[in-house]
Amino acid sequence: MVAVSTKKDIRRLSLLEIASVFKELGEPKFRANQVWEWLWKKGARSFEEMTNLSKTLREQLESQFTIQAIQEDKVQRSHDGTIKTRFRLHDGHLIESVLIPVPEDKRFTVCVSSQVGCSLTCKFCATGQMKRVRNLDAAEIYDQVVQVNRQSEETFGHPLTNIVYMGMGEPLLAYSNVLASIERITAEDGLGMSPRRITVSTAGIAKMISKLADDNVKFNLALSLHAADDEKRNEIMPINEQNSLDILMDSIAYFYRKTRNRISFEYIAFQNFNDSIVDAAKLAKLCQRFPVRVNIIEYNPVEGVSFHKSSADQIDRFAQFLVDEGVMVTVRRSRGKDIDAACGQLANKE
After folding, report:
1. Any catalytic annotation for residue 96?
2. Which of 48, 266, 343, 350 is catalytic?
């Protein structure tokens, strides 16, 4: 049984609210800015780290508030350089994040989780076999970026260059917390990362994609597509029954018209299911309404799931058909599969 603190996480307060706390303590207003910088620019995990505050003031803050930073629980390293980290949350739940290094391209990407578990039950995904417990709050998502960035700098001597919300959970079902985390990650008084280096992936919730457009977000959007007709997509992704491809494409077209942000389709190639030239032709048709890049992904085995990955030759034929149709295509060979860190494998297996 995990003892959960009854004190409020100070990171749930706005800067104005923190300023109000200091006013009650009889402290000058600039103290709030100092604490804010420690929390969101320096990623402080305790009040003790805030060395430009007096010891007495740190003790006063400690008596009223807590910082519910995520804790590293287990680290696994793949032979290809990928690093998967399991984090323990303040209430004892576990999540996973993945650092994907491509040193030759100076590209260091973190794949972050947005929920404990997932409610969407996609048939090919390990996380989909778990139940959704709760959404992560903005600070828990932010913490993944801060801690994996430190890991990247210590291991590879290079900070993170990209963030993808493609870990455990459906980001658009944790909408407000995901957007709040991105605000802190991109803000000048936060981590200061460009939103153009952030991609949020969704299994396809049309009304929330339209909301992203109305909220004029600056980050990129990825649709986990995986099938180019409703019959096949219904079979592997139950969310499609309420969000058909016609409805989804309308919402993404609206998103593109409003934001002009980059869009990609994630497409896992399953042997003898969605990897034929007929499937490729249907996919090419879906790519005609707005600029989109298709990322073809090798399937990664998941225990208890009967799908198999397409052969490399078949994937290349599929990709070449799309290229010939004028579609931008990237074939992504899986990384980290030996530590269950590849696409669709995150599940806190132990």
Report:
1. yes
2. 343
Domain ranges of the chain: 8-66, 71-339
Phi, psi of 327 (to 5 degrees): -90, 135
Task: Determine the Cα–Cα distance for residues 197 and 131; give it in Å rounded to an integer.
Answer: 30
Single-letter amino acid, residue 14: S
Catalytic residue among 96, 140, 170, 298: 96
Q: What is the pLDDT of residues 313-332, one digit of tens each?
A: 999 999 999 999 999 999 98
Q: Is 172 helix (H, G, I), strand (E, B) or coil?
A: helix
Query: Residue 180: which of 209, 140, 130, 223 has the closest Cα?
Result: 140
C-alpha pair distances (Å), 58 with each of 67, 188, 247: 12, 25, 53
Top-level class of domain 8-66 = mainly alpha
What is the crossing angle of helices 138-156 and 175-186, to 10°?
50
Q: Which of 174, 176, 162 is nearest to 133 (CA)?
A: 174
* Neighbouring C-beta atoms of residue 223, cutoff 10 Å: 23
Identity of residue 79: H
Over residues 191-245, the pLDDT tens digits come to: 999 999 999 999 999 999 999 999 999 999 999 999 999 999 999 999 999 999 9
Q: Which CATH superfamily is domain 71-339 in?
A: Aldolase class I (3.20.20.70)
